[in-house]
Amino acid sequence: MQFRHYLQPGFENLRQIELIEAANVVINKCLNVKPGESVAIVTDTMQSWRIAEALAMATNLAGAEYVLLCIKPRKSMYGPPEVTNPPKPIRGALKDADAAYLIGTTGLIWTDAVQEALKNGCRMLTSPGMSEDNFYRCIMIDYEAVWERTKRVHSYLVPGKHVRLTSPQGSNLTFEIGYRPLMRDEKAAKVVYQYPPLPNRKGIVSGPGEFDYLPAGVAAGGLREGTANGTLVIDGSLSRIGVLREPVTVTIRDGRLVESKGGFEEREFRAALDVFGDPNMYNLACIGIGTNPTAKFVGQPNEDERVVGMCYFQFGDNYRIYGGYSKAVMYYVAQLTTPKLEIDGKVILEGGVLKV
C-alpha cells in the first residue's frame, strides 16, 4: 500500500526542500559519502521519484559521482535469481560503486547481485517501501540517542531466553529467543554469525561491505524454531494490507500458524502467506521492538516496525538476518499496538510504553 503526501497545486516543490534536507543526512551521515566516491541509487517505478532526485542532489553536493537507476519492482525480496535479481547493468553498477542506497518498494539486499557488491566492498543502505513522509520524518533523528535506546533493548534480547507476550486484545503467547547472536558488536571481534554480513542497526555504515536499514530504530531477533505456542492477536497492521479494520487472531503451535480468525483482512493475510507456495511462510520467525521516537503508526511496515512502544512479528524467513533455520521465500510483518512483553520476567513493553 502506497501512502503519498498530497500538496496543493503549485506547492509540490516545497516538499522537495524537505526531502533534500533528509537526503543530505542520508548521504553525509548515514552513508558517509566522501568527495570523489561513486554512489549508486537504485529505485523502482512504484517508488517516489522525488526521493531519488533528492538523493542525487545531495550526492552531487557532497562532491561525489552518482548514477540513478530505476527498475521494475521485484515480486519478492527472496527467491530464485530470475525473480529477485535486478537487471545485469545494475549488478555491474553496484559491484563497482563505493556506496549504494536501495530505495525500491521491494528489498534487494539478499539478492545475488547485492551480496556480490557487498563482498566487493560496497557499503550499502536499504529502505524498502519508504514513503516521502517516512523519509523526511524518520531520517531526521538523533542517531546516537536512538542507538543507545536500541542497545538497551538488545541487552535484554541477546542474553534473554523465555519470552511471554500478552495484550488487552487477547494475545497470550510464549516462546524462546537468545540462542544465537542478534546484533553486531564492535568490541566482540570473535562473534561469528551464521549468515554474515548482518545489519549493524545504527542506520550508519562506514566500512567496506557494511549494510543497514533505514530508518534506524528497531531492536529485533529471531525466535527459536518450534518454541512458540499460544494466541497472537494482530491489531495493528499487516504487510500489503495496511492498518487493520478488525483484529486478526492466530493460533501458534510449536512455532507455526495453525489457525486464524477474522474478517476479510484475515483472508487476505492467509492468501499472502499462501501465494508463494512455501510452507515455511507459516513459521513465526522474528520479533522486533521499535526505538525510533519520530516513527508513527501509519500502516507501512517500514515505519510501523520502528514505533516506540509497539512490537511486531515476522512470519516466514529468519535465516538470512538472524541466523535461524526458517528459510522462506520472504517474510511477512504483523504489527501489535499495545502488547505487554516480558523477557525472563522483565517487563520490556506495556501499554504502548517502552519500559527499559
Description:
The chain has 356 residues and is of the alpha+beta class. The protein has two domains: 128 residues, Rossmann fold (3-Layer(aba) Sandwich), CATH 3.40.50.2300; 192 residues, no CATH class. The chain is globular and about 55 Å long. 49% of the residues are buried. Helix content is 27%, strand content 26%.
Sequence-ordered SSE layout with sheet pairings:
Blueprint: H1 12-30, E1 38-44, H2 49-61, E2 65-71, H3 81-84, H4 88-96, E3 99-102, H5 112-119, E4 123-126, H6 132-139, H7 143-157, E5 162-166, E6 172-176, E7 211-213, E8 218-222, E9 229-234, E10 237-238, E11 242-243, E12 248-253, E13 256-261, H8 264-274, E14 284-290, H9 301-304, E15 311-316, H10 319-322, E16 331-336, E17 340-343, E18 346-350, E19 353-354
Parallel strand pairs: 1-2, 1-3, 3-4, 4-7
Antiparallel strand pairs: 5-6, 5-17, 6-9, 8-14, 9-12, 10-11, 12-13, 14-15, 15-16, 17-18, 18-19
